[in-house]
Design brief:
This protein is an alpha/beta fold. The protein folds into two domains: 14-102, 3-Layer(aba) Sandwich (Udp-n-acetylmuramoylalanyl-d-glutamate--2,6- Diaminopimelate Ligase, Chain: A, domain 1), CATH 3.40.1390.10; 168-315, UDP N-Acetylglucosamine Acyltransferase, domain 1. It is 15% helix and 26% strand. The strands form six sheets. It has an eleven-stranded mixed β-sheet with strand order 8-11-14-17-22-25-28-31-34-36-37. The chain has a nine-stranded parallel β-sheet with strand order 9-12-15-18-23-26-29-32-35, with no helix packed on it. A hairpin with a 4-residue loop joins strand 36 and strand 37. It is flat.
Length: 333
């Protein structure tokens, strides 16, 4: 799968020598290849370049169908036999340079209302800017000074407030976005280099399904390569952060100041109390609850309620809290 052409402009494929120049690496296994895209190890094909920066992805590297792999010197023997191997001491940063070259973002060029609105029932308040290729469905109202990026698709009967920005996103029907919401900004991705960290291009999208509500000044980042998805009828309070590649289920409730790190999977009917924090790459089961102020560092099974920092099942947390209070009181006595 290549990045969505509504949001990223495909560049001409590049030959191996040009690819090596971009990466600054060294070829240790050469075949004739032409590279048209970047991809993850799991999704790469013969026209894609992928990278491995950590040995915990050794199995994924060995199974990859990438045409070219960027690896550190210690991982050359782990690379698949059919792939060109380029050695780099900074493989993720090298991959980022290739990604920026092959998949530049579509530049915002304002389009006319007639070109983007489904019919005359769409209302664009003063100062709205809509990029080329965007589409806005029947009965949707867009508040003043909102910016809708190129290629964005917005469904019917949506309510978008003032000062919202939407980019790299597909929005369903009956979605509400309150003032200052930021949908589709780049996720937090950086690669280390000898000269300091560099940004890694974020090539995915945000998908908001039907009936989603996003509160004022909340941020939902687009995926690093795949999508960030918020399921039907999920309600998000003000000042909530959802990181890249998160999958949020249906009918979830996220109270203010909740922060969800990247690549978290949340089931249906999950509730987050205010200021809940969730570490990356975790899974939260259907019907689970994360108490206000909790700091989650482990998966939650379906239906359980966790609290505290680090968060744990609430009964365990309460027992430990009672025991600790008793110890303190004993010392006072």
């Amino acid at each position: 799968m290549s990045p969505d052409v509504r949001f990223f402009t495909p560049s001409a494929p590049i030959a191996l020598d040009d690819l090596v120049a971009l990466t600054g690496g060294e070829v240790v296994r050469r075949f004739e290849v032409v590279i048209a895209r970047v991809a993850t190890l799991a999704e790469a094909d013969a026209e894609a370049v992928a990278f491995m920066a950590d040995r915990k992805f050794a199995v994924a590297l060995a199974a990859s169908r990438a045409g070219v792999v960027l690896v550190p010197p210690s991982a050359v023997d782990l690379a698949p036999a059919a792939a060109v191997v380029i050695v780099s001491r900074e493989p993720q940063a090298a991959w980022a340079r290739v990604a920026a070259h092959l998949h530049p973002e579509v530049v915002l060029t304002p389009a006319s209302a007639d070109a983007v609105c489904e019919d005359e029932t769409v209302v664009l308040e003063p100062g709205v800017v809509v990029g080329q290729g965007a589409r806005i469905g029947r009965g949707t109202r867009v508040g003043a000074n909102t910016v809708i990026g190129p290629g964005v698709q917005i469904g019917r009967d949506c309510r978008i407030a003032t000062g919202v920005s939407i980019s790299f996103a597909l929005i369903g029907d009956r979605v509400k976005l309150y003032a200052g919401a930021r949908i589709g900004e780049a996720g937090f991705g950086a690669a280390g280099t000898a000269g300091g960290p560099v940004d890694v291009p974020q090539l995915g999208r945000v998908i908001l399904q039907d009936g989603v509500t996003v509160g004022a000044n909340s941020c939902i980042d687009r995926g690093a390569y795949g999508d960030t998805v918020v399921g039907e009828n999920t309600k998000i309070d003000n000042l909530v952060q959802i990181g890249h590649n998160c999958i949020i289920g249906r009918n979830c409730l996220l109270a203010a100041h909740t922060g969800i790190s990247g690549s978290v999977t949340v089931g249906d009917n999950v509730m987050f109390g205010g200021k809940a924090g969730v570490g990356d790459h975790l899974t939260i089961g259907d019907g689970a609850r994360v108490a206000g102020g909790a700091g989650l560092l482990a998966d939650i099974p379906p239906g359980e309620t966790w609290s505290g920092y680090p968060a744990k099942p609430i009964r365990q947390f309460l027992r430990e809290s009672v025991w600790l209070a008793r110890q303190v009181n004993r010392k006072k006595d």
